[in-house]
């Protein structure tokens, strides 16, 4: 779609911002009980570990501050979440995200992997610090 080509960097910046912002909400949900809270009985390592990565990593990605490293860590966290859905919490156990309810984890994993590869881009704190 050639008409979008001139806007690629701006679209990427909006994507990076929204992915980070959506991820932050999961952190608030786990750490502070917002947006429906975390299910009772969730392991503390998941609540505090993943919640902290979601909150801090999502904020860094959204702001475009060290977005590459933050997104890489977030991608790994979501790869673990996908495996957790596939082999631990789903019933029946399945590697298919549509069955194990891990679609969001799988999508976040690859979205953050892309952000890790591309970096902060325009409209970011990193770009402002570099004088771009």
Characterise the protein shown here.
The protein has one domain (7-129). α1 (8-32) runs antiparallel to α2 and α2 (44-63) runs antiparallel to α3 (67-89). 30% of the residues are buried. The protein is mostly helical and 132 residues long. Helix content is 70%, strand content 0%.
Average pLDDT metric:
93
Q: How many helical stretches?
A: 6
Give the tally of structural domains: 1
Separation, N- and C-terminal Cα atoms: 27 Å
Element pattern in H and E: HHHHHH
- Give start-end ranges of low-pLDDT stretches: none
Protein traits:
132 residues; 6 helices; mainly alpha; single chain
Offer a quick outline of the entry.
With 132 residues, the protein is mostly helical.
Provide the fold topology.
Layout (H helix, E strand, L loop, with lengths): L7 H25 L11 H20 L3 H23 L7 H4 L2 H16 L6 H5 L3
Helix pairs in contact: 1-2, 2-3, 3-5
């Amino acid at each position: 779609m050639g008409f979008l080509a001139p806007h690629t960097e701006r679209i990427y910046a909006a994507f990076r911002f929204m992915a980070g912002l959506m991820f932050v909400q999961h952190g608030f949900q786990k750490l502070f009980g917002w947006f429906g809270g975390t299910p009772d009985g969730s392991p503390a390592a998941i609540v505090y570990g993943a919640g902290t990565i979601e909150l801090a990593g999502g904020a860094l990605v959204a702001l475009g501050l060290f977005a590459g490293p933050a997104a890489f860590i977030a991608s790994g966290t979501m790869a673990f979440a996908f495996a957790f859905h596939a082999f631990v919490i789903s019933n029946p156990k399945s590697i298919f995200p549509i069955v194990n309810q891990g679609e969001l984890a799988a999508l976040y994993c690859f979205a953050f992997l892309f952000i890790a590869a591309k970096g902060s881009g325009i409209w970011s704190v990193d770009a402002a610090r570099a004088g771009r």
